[in-house]
Design a protein that fits this description.
Length: about 140
Amino acid sequence: MTTRQQVAEVEGWFTLDGAEPRLLGLRCPDCGTYVFPPRAIACPNPECPATELESVELSRRGTVWSYTVNHYAPPEPYVAPDPFEPYAVAAVELADEKMIVLGQVAGPLDGLAVGAPVELVIDTLYEDDEGEHVVWKWQVAS
């Protein structure tokens, strides 16, 4: 059995550690404000003058703040399976940072509800000649 190369669909936003994947964010060392995705050039807190942020790994666990189930395939460039299968997107409040991060939900939706505990997983978005294109997703914690 050949293992396909994993390709992060969005470089620098998450680790590819299968056992303990993490989102990668930024943190202001002056006021403690967290940023995700990690693209800010200065602290986004309007009351903080800091211009340098430090790279950090964010919480792997959180609780569902809100969610929706998408029953229609999004337009290109999204690569939808054929036939299209509905999927959920959850807004998750990270356990330690108390910030909301959106992500698709992996696996069965049993137990998905506002307030449900979830954990970060790496899952396949699609496959092509380059390999297995992966993204972070939320999975209901057991």
